[in-house]
């Protein structure tokens, strides 16, 4: 390889130790392949063009055309021995030794991040001096060299900008360590909300890029109900004993919104939320094994919970709620919402079975009936959300409108809110929000 900058870049990649896992990354592995190709004694233009475009294609697929932006992102969210020890608040000698190696890796990664397409093209012009190749080389796509503009949560943007403005990335080591101590590493630092999905028979966590942004300030009324959930969540985050919570009651009263708003309020304090579809409740043991050794606090969120008489998934939930040897872990709670107090459907035929002479009926029918009725009791805290009366409904409407600074006559607002409730879904917090959404848009286009 003739060009010292390319030599330095390849050596920087090969020298990675703690961040060596990044060599398996699609973009960086393609970049390394390009540099290795250029290091050969007999470089072929056609082969080189393919390596160049393979790298560019992978970079473009990442939704970034800035190599620096891409590498900074990989550094921040990498999961390696240093980031794992940092998030565990480890202060042993190993973390100090790792820190010295990480500082060297950061300097090497900065060298890679500073590589631009003009340097690679200059090497190609030198290697292939046949003038007929110059237009082909010159038209190879360029990746961005300007300082990237970052988007996302402030605590992540702050660290990204720290790297961009630093002349020596090893000076960012302490900021990086503090970030991992406060927010964790890997996907648990990148995302605050997850959903449990299954593919090819295997369950996995999928990060949610844009979780519902609703906040506690957006919610009007039901302060007493929410305060019980908030108090329990704060106990949980502060390491004190806390309870699993069942939020049940009438539809549209803000049960799900309360849970989502709590995540947005406290995710910077280490709270994470994993939504588990009811169909996958049997995966609870697998989920708990995956999360129990993490330093973050996890709420497993089950929405619209109810079971039919022939469903067995409720036994998985019951086992977790009862706190078996495997399921009892201090960094996991379950918050569930339901429109009904009795989570497992009960039938009159079961009650008839208590005195039935039918040999097909269960002998101990009362035991089965009590087991079904007692599932809700296994949640330590039950919070009831009831449909609002007219006065409360109008209070919610006015409160939402005030938060949005809508300049609408109050009498007219209330009159139309009542008409809306009659025409559509009845009085509820959800109906109030839907009405305000409508009237805000209606006023904007008038």
The average pLDDT is: 86
Distance between the termini: 68 Å
Number of domains: 3
The coarse silhouette is globular
Low-pLDDT regions: none
Order of helices and strands: HHHHHHHHHHHEEHEHEHEHEHHEHHH
Based on secondary structure, the structural category is alpha/beta
The level of helicity is 40-55%
With helices defined by DSSP (H or I, 4 residues minimum), what is the helix count? 20
The biggest beta sheet reads: 7 strands, mixed
Number of strands: 7
Q: What is the radius of gyration computed over CA atoms, rounded to a whole number of angstroms?
A: 29 Å
Proportion of residues in extended strands: 5-15%
* Main sheet strand line-up: 2-1-4-5-6-3-7
Structural description of this entry:
The protein has helices at about 5-15, 25-40, 45-60, 65-75, 80-85, 95-115, 115-125, 135-140, 155-165, 175-185, 185-190, 225-235, 255-265, 285-290, 315-320, 350, 365-375, 390-405, 410-425, 430-445, and strands at about 195-200, 200-205, 245-250, 270-275, 295-300, 330-340, 380-385. The protein has about 450 residues and is α/β, with parallel strands linked by helices. The protein folds into 3 domains: about 5-190, no CATH class; about 205-385, P-loop containing nucleotide triphosphate hydrolases (Rossmann fold, 3-Layer(aba) Sandwich), CATH 3.40.50; about 390-445. Strands 2-1-4-5-6-3-7 form a 7-stranded mixed β-sheet, with helices on both faces. The longest helix is centred in the first third of the chain and has 21 residues, at about 95-115. It is globular. The protein starts with a helix and ends with a helix.
